[in-house]
Design a protein that fits this description.
The complex is a heterodimer of chains A (419) and B (226). Chain A is of the alpha+beta class and 419 residues long. Chain A has 17 helices and ten strands. Chain A has helices spanning 3-16, 18-54, 73-76, 102-110, 144-151, 153-156, 163-167, 176-181, 213-218, 224-231, 251-262, 269-272, 274-312, 314-322, 327-361, 382-408, 412-418; strands at 60-63, 115-130, 133-142, 157-160, 171-175, 189-194, 199-208, 219-223, 240-245, 265-268. Chain A has a six-stranded mixed beta barrel with strand order 2-3-8-5-7-6. The longest helix of chain A has 39 residues, at 274-312. The radius of gyration of chain A is 33 Å and the shape is elongated. The two termini of chain A are 29 Å apart. Chain B is α/β, with parallel strands linked by helices. In chain B, the strands form two sheets. Chain B has a six-stranded mixed β-sheet with strand order 6-7-8-3-9-10. In chain B, strands 2-1-4-5 form a four-stranded antiparallel β-sheet, covered by helices on one side. In chain B, helix 6 links the parallel strand 7 and strand 8. In chain B, helix 3 runs parallel beside helix 5 (149-161) and helix 5 packs parallel to helix 6 (179-196). The longest helix of chain B is centred in the last third of the chain and has 18 residues, at 179-196. Chain B is globular. At the A-B interface, helix 1, helix 14, helix 15 and helix 17 of A face helix 2 and helix 3 of B.
Amino acid sequence: MKARHILEIARALLMARAKQTLVAAVGVAFSVAFFISLLGFMEGLNSLLDGLVLNRTPHIRLFNDLKPSAIQPIDLDSSYKDYHSMVSSVKPSNARKGIYDAERIIKKLMSDRRVYGVAPKVSAQVFYNLGNIELNGLVNGVDVVQEAKLFNFNTYIVEGNSQDLMNRPNTIVLGSGLAQKILAKKGDLVQVTTTKGEKFSLKVIGFFQSGMVEFDKIQSYVSLATCQKLLGESNHYVSDIQVKLINMDQAPVIAKEYEELFGVNTEDIQTANAQFETGSSARTIISFSVGIVLLIVAGFGIYNILNMMIYEKMDTIAILKATGFSGNDVKKIFISISLSIGVVGALAGVLLGLVFSILIDNIPFDSMAVPGVDTYPVDYGIQYYSIAVVFAVATTFLASWFPSQKASSVDPVEIIRGK
Amino acid sequence: MENTIVLEAKSILKSFYDPVQKEVLKDISFDIHRGEFVSVMGRSGCGKSSLLYILSTMDTDYTGELYIDQELVTNQSDQALASLRNEKIGFVFQFHYLLHEFSVLKNVMLPGFKLNRLSQAELEHNAFELLKKLGIEHLASKMAYQISGGEKQRVAIARAMINDPLLLMCDEPTGNLDNKNKEIVFDTFNELVQSFNKTLLVVTHDQSFADNTQRTIRMEDGRICN
């Protein structure tokens, strides 16, 4: 029995019930379309929200932690070896906050093939002076080019040009919340006082908005050199080295490796932001289950229609069997009917899903919290399309299993005798 | 050649168990030679249809032995029986049983699809030749539900012939046809036997039809009585 002939018979049976077939296929198409657009939308939102934090968080951060040495002088004296040390309130010594030999570490990191990019950073605790009032704040000295490349720095600048930070000395980009608080406009001079008591005047060249209000109320950005000057340090001083990897999942392992290699403290993104992983995987699970339920419902539709078709076509089945078609052939015929509904429905659903996704992608979405986004985010990942198609075809196959089993076991004698 | 036994039944016994046990066929034994035109006569309920279903291998629930083409078919698998039916037995039913979803030509070709021995073109050619022989080639492209009862019966005969079977089995082929169509069908059968050396087994109610066949098996109450 050639597959072509099985398909021909299946097609003829389908055409005899064209309307019902169409309804079944539309059912599959809609569930595939909703599956795709739902998951694409959910994933788009997920990555947008996660991106708020994750995009700006280095995969690995190298820094010198300020904590008292684990080995205190008293431990070094062998005459006290058998005694219990009761020295309490141990304080860290005035060790340098900067990373020792940062330039060579950066060079070494750049040559690591797993590393996507490296950005040095200097941060300084300051007070913003507003008349008599002093506002607590944090100034980040950044390498503008690297920062833009690795952490989408430019996306978050809502006014002004980040290039100016590099090209003009003593300039600052203020957080939007902070700017509102101190009523700063572009071109104004802002006074900052460092923790060492020195005062600096910095010119405001722009504002940035990260989407997190608390963050924007405190932070501001200057160039590396300006920040080094604020701290009164040399131009070799770097307090953080931020590393972005090609594969984020390797971060914990590589972080440990760097910790040993360079003798610094490291922190990986998974440890720093564990809660984001949990949130997005829970959302993904929810949308997957909704989508799969949709497909299963469509499967029941097909099951119904096949069952009905088999009751209607008892005569046909009986005659096919009488003329020598085996139960297996009959089964194949009904499974191919169902599969063709599934495949056609799934393909139509993919197109429809794409259309839905494009529609959602064009709905305006104005949010102060999320700069650089003006429509709803949609993920067009091919994985959602393929999962939907595979699952739709599998569901229709399963839905056809019992009805076609029943068709294959129809006893032709009973049908023919019954007439 | 003339004397080859095509079909042989040995003490076939069949009972229905629902609602009470009732023997419908009691110890049926007979054989049919190649080229014979045999009719089975009997009143309604005498078991002739039941016998036909057993002989046609569709009903496997019986005791005794059945040989087709000198091969024991009793207790063969469904799969094997299906291909045996496909290859060696042609069927014509009382209610013609064409598939309404297909054209007349496709209906005739269907058993050929299953046999899968000829190419599509050859099969189509054969089917058309058969229709021509039966004088209904002009209906080839019509859908099965568009033709008349007599025409349907002839299409069913063409379908039964498409795989060039050893044996043709017919269940009341003229049961609901008018005299004119009855004649046409009978002549067709006769010609199949005369010119193509086919073997025919026809279950019928119709005395005049049975009288014209070479041999008549009379059944009464589950037994052969001649």
